[in-house]
Design goal:
Layout: E1 4-10, H1 17-20, E2 29-35, H2 38-48, E3 53-57, H3 58-66, E4 72-81, E5 88-91, E6 106-109, H4 115-128, E7 136-139, E8 161-163, H5 170-175, E9 181-183, H6 189-192, E10 198-200, H7 205-216, E11 221-228, H8 229-234, H9 238-257, H10 270-281, H11 294-306, H12 316-319
Parallel strand pairs: 1-2, 1-3, 6-7, 6-9, 7-8
Antiparallel strand pairs: 3-11, 4-11, 5-9, 5-10
GO molecular function: 4,5-dihydroxyphthalate decarboxylase activity
Keywords: Lyase
InterPro entries: SsuA/THI5
């Protein structure tokens, strides 16, 4: 039987590199792997459906799925996970010393519906009681004006969200004092050049994020893996084959982290960082599958619905390909 020809597009993570270089195969398939930045990957996948298998921003996927507007089905392979206390940047001259001080402020966001912003808003509301509608949101490109949402917004007409002025980037607006804060997965350039007026809401974000995990047991999910819907219908075995291959690649990446005789990365204290991470989160901290991530997934589903993104409260059964819900494949 001829092998299925697949194009796969993701960022060049350590946890996918064994698939890129051929150490791990996808059973029954011949793959063409296209590493690219996540912004390019999402743009080409969501707007043009170019790839058979693709990394997907999980918040936009939930939105599209809840509205029945997705060309892709989801596999519970979570390629990107990050705590997002580090993603909130502020003007230091606006009296913003704690999350509660964001009430009434003008806050920039590259895409209101992006996963990083969803998690940051949810954390701010659950832990500090600040609702999204207590801030005014300005949506636009972080460094290049004109960025837009993947799906039309579904917020109430009275919700305080507006577009950035034409020709203005969020970073420049923060630098010039037209914004009080930015929620962004990437650091704005005005922060990266060490402007004295720009800082983080949580300067010691690592401590804040570790405390969050100790209290909540949640490791936020940013991106999942999508498979073209027509291929699921044509090859019912394919979702599990992909799941197993991506899990095997992740396992190799984890083994590489533990190689201390000759470090494979340029971080001299990688071993110490790994030990600290495992002390807080346990040895198996980067899990795939539904059962091991049930608490994190349920919280993300709630945030999406509460924040006016998904049009209904989703469940794992609504979101993932049924064959990938089987606990026997999850490792």
């Amino acid at each position: 039987m001829a092998k299925v020809q697949l194009s796969i597009a993701t960022w060049d993570y350590d946890r996918v590199r064994p698939l890129i270089d051929g150490r791990v195969k996808v059973e029954g398939c011949e793959i063409t792997y296209l590493p690219m930045t996540v912004e390019e990957c999402f743009q080409r996948a969501y707007l043009h459906g170019e790839f058979d298998v693709t990394e997907l921003g999980f918040s936009p996927f939930l939105i599209g799925r809840s509205r029945g507007a997705m060309e892709y089905e989801a596999i519970p392979v979570f390629l990107s996970r990050m705590f997002r206390h580090s993603a909130i940047y502020i003007r230091k001259d606006r009296g913003i010393l704690r999350p509660e001080d964001l009430r009434g402020k003008r806050v920039g966001v590259p895409e209101y519906q992006m996963s990083a912003a969803l998690w940051a808003r949810g954390m701010i509301q659950d832990d500090h009681g600040v609702r999204p509608d207590e801030m005014t949101w300005i949506q636009g490109g972080l460094e290049v004006p004109g960025r837009r949402e993947k799906f039309p917004l579904n917020l109430p007409d009275s919700f305080p969200l507006e577009a950035a002025p034409a020709g203005r980037s969020l970073s420049k607006m923060l630098e010039d004092g037209e914004l009080d804060a930015i929620f962004s997965a990437r650091a704005p350039s005005c922060f990266s050049v060490h402007s004295p007026s720009i800082g983080r809401l949580f300067p010691d974000y690592k401590r804040a994020e570790m405390d969050y995990y100790r209290r909540c047991g949640v490791f936020p999910i940013m991106h999942a893996l999508g498979l073209r819907k027509t291929l699921v219908e044509r090859h019912p075995w394919l979702p599990v084959s992909l799941y197993k291959a991506f899990a095997a690649a992740r396992d190799i990446a984890e083994q590489d982290l533990r190689e201390v005789a000759a470090l494979k990365t340029m971080l001299p204290w990688l071993g110490a960082d790994l030990e600290q991470t495992e002390k807080v989160m346990g040895r198996n901290f980067w899990t795939y599958g539904v059962e091991a991530n049930a608490k994190t997934l349920d919280l993300m589903f709630r945030y999406s619905y509460e924040q006016g993104l998904a049009v209904r409260l989703m469940t794992a059964e609504d979101v993932f390909i049924p064959s990938t819900l089987d606990d026997s494949i999850h490792v």
